[in-house]
Amino acid sequence: MPEQGGNMAYTLTQTWLALKAWPEMKRWRSAFGLAVPTLLFIAGIGYLSGWITFAPVSDAATIFTAVGILFFLPALFEELVFRGFLLAWLTTKTARWSAWISTLLFVLWHPLQALTIGPPWASVFLQPSFLFATFLLGIILSHIRIVSGSLWPVVMIHWFAAVVWKLVLGGPFY
Prior knowledge:
Blueprint: H1 8-20, H2 25-49, H3 60-93, H4 98-116, H5 122-125, H6 128-148, H7 152-167
Helix pairs in contact: 1-3, 2-6, 2-7, 3-4, 3-7, 4-6, 6-7
């Protein structure tokens, strides 16, 4: 394990380095090769549980706005927090369990949003099947982040998943 001391400077440096790193094409292919089957499996869970339905949005203004907002919230923000800052910090405490703990916190973040912000998230973000799907996504994104050394593949995968869910598969809007 690298010299780290568990301090904030190390955590911020590691997060910044992961944000600056742009993976080689083979890492991108590997990331999407792992993410696509996972997202299809998650879509199956969502369809069977009723929180995914084919309901495409056709309004251009809504699409444009959603694509922009979803890049920053949830994709960039949540990935900076969970696969950036928290994963780097947890690695200084317990490298073996850091991805699992970060993923658990990622999962718990969703019901917290439902209970504090409320609808339209509450009905979906509290469902066990959604939390299981969030766990699957979180652990895959943690793996991709660790292997790629970059936050960009996980940001892009999270963004893609959120855009497709919100704009094509009936996900609730902010």
